[in-house]
């Protein structure tokens, strides 16, 4: 009897030493505990063991943080300094001491390029194309994995291009129009599938190279163009169900003068023609409505916008930043009530801003 009771067939399986996430605790409880550690310490956690490193790069980790409302949003700003050198800064919105920090890593070949695409998709940032005085438009694409804190080179664009529109729609990356190399066609757009790491090229005569800005709204891509013939602004709209581009001359286009974001399916634009004034497009009334203006002491145009939940973050020269909560929007004598983040002691220009939540 003793030999039967003592046999391994009736004992609980013994976990190999060092395999548990936290000694003495089931892995599900350990995961629940570890996932509550703020994102800024995740790099330190990866240094504990290979098991922890693999865990923090897994879908299980991100699903747990999302399910328990622990995901944190960081903003990434692509900038250019006085020496024309490109850099990237990051802002932790959840930190009690909010401040911009420079990312140490960036593909060195991108330091002097202009007209690059900068986009966020999932947990990754993409740096695309670009050109310089000594370099024609390039087709190079680099991907930054925030979970691994590293850049890798991925499949190149179908057409080398710079100063083009870049948007994400239905988990695919679009590179639209712009200036292409001699072998490229400016009336084209490329679509990137991250699952297969491949680009698919398309042509459409409605695509032009004078692209000023773009936005994804109502499941469609809107690209704002400027006609060199009649100096009129208009927009092209891409409908994914038909794969076609069509021209739009609606009232929405006439007031789309500046960086734009979508918050709760509503379009907001920062008008910088005189100070910084936030405008909202009323789809019901088909007109632009003024929300309010930001204090000239806090914003330093030219600015870029990024939406984080119901908040709009305005990032200007020197990374001067203002955070405006749309749900609690108030004004005092026409000036919007907002919080701010001190700017850096430099005059770097902000080229684009994106956010990633993990």
Automatic annotation (TrEMBL):
Keywords, sorted A to Z: Kelch repeat, Repeat
Bilayer-crossing regions: none
Which residue ranges are recorded for the region named Disordered?
A: 1-21
Say which domain of life the source belongs to. Answer: Eukaryota
Instruction: List where Polar residues composition bias occurs.
Output: 1-10
InterPro entries recorded for this chain? F-box-like_dom_sf, F-box_dom, Kelch-typ_b-propeller, Kelch_1, Kelch_FKB95
**Any idea where the F-box domain is?**
19-65
Record Pfam families: F-box, Kelch_FKB95
Q: Please give the name of this protein.
A: F-box/kelch-repeat protein SKIP4
């Amino acid at each position: 009897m003793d030999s039967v009771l003592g046999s391994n067939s009736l004992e609980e399986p013994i976990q190999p030493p060092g395999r548990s996430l936290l000694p003495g605790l089931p892995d599900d409880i350990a995961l629940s505990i570890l996932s509550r550690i703020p994102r800024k310490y995740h790099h330190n956690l990866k240094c504990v063991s290979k098991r922890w490193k693999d865990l923090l790069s897994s879908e299980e980790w991100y699903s747990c943080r999302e399910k328990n409302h622990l995901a944190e949003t960081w903003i990434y700003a692509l900038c250019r300094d006085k020496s024309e050198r490109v850099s990237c800064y990051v802002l932790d919105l959840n930190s009690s001491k909010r401040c911009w920090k420079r990312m140490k890593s960036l593909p060195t070949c991108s330091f002097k390029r202009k007209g690059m695409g900068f986009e966020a998709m999932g947990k990754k940032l993409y740096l695309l194309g670009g050109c310089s005085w000594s370099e024609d438009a390039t087709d190079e694409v680099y991907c930054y994995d925030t979970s691994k804190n590293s850049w890798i080179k991925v499949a190149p664009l179908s057409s080398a291009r710079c100063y083009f529109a870049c948007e994400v729609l239905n988990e695919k990356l679009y590179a639209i129009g712009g200036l292409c190399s001699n072998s490229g066609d400016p009336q084209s757009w490329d679509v990137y599938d991250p699952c297969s790491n491949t680009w698919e090229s398309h042509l459409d005569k409605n695509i032009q190279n004078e692209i000023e800005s773009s936005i994804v709204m109502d499941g469609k891509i809107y690209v704002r163009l400027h006609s060199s013939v009649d100096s009129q602004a208009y927009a092209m709209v891409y409908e994914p169900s038909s794969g076609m581009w069509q021209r739009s001359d609606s009232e929405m286009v006439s007031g789309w003068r500046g960086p734009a974001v979508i918050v709760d399916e509503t379009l907001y634009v920062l008008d910088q023609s005189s100070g910084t004034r936030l405008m909202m497009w009323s789809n019901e009334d088909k007109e632009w409505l003024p929300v309010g203006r930001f204090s000239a002491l806090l914003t330093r145009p030219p600015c870029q916008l990024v939406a984080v939940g119901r908040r709009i973050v305005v990032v200007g020269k020197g990374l001067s930043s203002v955070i405006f909560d749309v749900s609690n929007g108030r004004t005092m004598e026409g000036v919007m009530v907002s919080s701010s983040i001190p700017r850096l002691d430099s005059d770097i220009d902000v080229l684009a801003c994106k956010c990633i939540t993990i």
